[in-house]
Design a protein that fits this description.
By secondary structure, this protein is an alpha+beta fold. The chain contains 4 helices and 6 strands. 23% of the residues lie in helices and 33% in strands. The strands form 2 sheets. The chain has a 3-stranded antiparallel beta sheet, with no helix packed on it.
């Protein structure tokens, strides 16, 4: 006989920022091998009309170039890299792809947190990365 040692963990929460509510779900799956995988799924809902605020809607409200710059700045701080070059060259964050806005994000009262899954933009050991940027720095006036 053969035994399997699989693991699945999931949790969810509702984050209320006044105008919107974000439903955030985190999961971890291990099905064998060297590592399990972590991921996050978010759904932002406008409380006034019940509409889902998807990536396309968010992109209409933010400056793409400023947002990409602020995501990189946030990751430099989060990972304690001295600068952007070290973020790319030493930590291999966004080493294989240009900076982009992910599908998963949490719209907070004063900030937007962009969530990148395990292995999405960086090596596995860095796990899920959450880049928090101030709304005032990226919103289109």
């Amino acid at each position: 006989t053969m035994s399997c040692n699989y693991e699945f963990l999931a949790n969810g929460k509702a984050i209320d920022n006044g105008e919107n509510t974000c439903l955030a779900f985190d999961k971890y799956v291990y099905t064998g091998g060297a590592n399990g995988m972590s991921s996050s799924i978010t759904i932002n809902v406008n409380k006034e009309n019940g509409d889902i605020i998807n990536k396309e809607e968010l992109l209409k409200q933010i400056s793409l170039n400023k947002t990409k710059k602020e995501i990189v700045n946030s990751l430099v701080k989060l990972l304690k890299a001295k600068n952007t070059k070290l973020l790319h060259d030493s930590l291999n964050v966004f080493a294989d792809a240009p900076v982009y806005i992910p599908d998963n994000f949490i719209i907070g009262k004063d900030s937007i947190t962009f969530i990148y899954g395990d292995l999405e933009i960086a090596p596995h050991y860095l796990g899920v990365l959450k880049a928090k940027v101030a709304k005032k720095d990226v919103m289109i006036k």
